[in-house]
Amino acid sequence: MSHSMDAAAPAAAGMGAVPAAEAAQAVPAATGANAGRPLAAYDVLSPECPSRTVLRHVVDRWTPLIVAVLAQGPRRFGELRQAVGGVTPKVLAQTLRSMERDGLVLREQTPGVPPRVDYTLTPLGAGLAEPIAALRAWAEGNAEQVLAHREAYDRAHPQSEE
Question: Which of 4, 67, 110, 113 is deepest in the core (most CB within 10 A)?
Fold first, then answer.
């Protein structure tokens, strides 16, 4: 069985947690107009903060759905594609590769003909399961109300045809 996580992945996967005080000191220097000055702490509201790229990836169209499926246990590519629904093989492969790069997913290949490839959440990725489940519950529990508001808004603000 081959694992495609690098040597730095255990720390990124939550197995070597860094205390908050150390994490704040380890924040990279700012870029652009503030180059050379370290960021005080990760702040997603700061345009220069690298945590924005993390947030963007975590809330993209497919990552939350993949996390929700993998929270139930390991899956093969075809199983993931079927469970997620609507994702193309190309986009699923790109998303899984990106999630693997970020340390959220572990890709395990077992030799054979054909080789077997399973995807599982790393401890870091598993840490996303609860917040994503809460967001999913909110979306499913409030969908009717949001759709009603959307419909009312669209009636009150008809699209102007130019």
Answer: 67
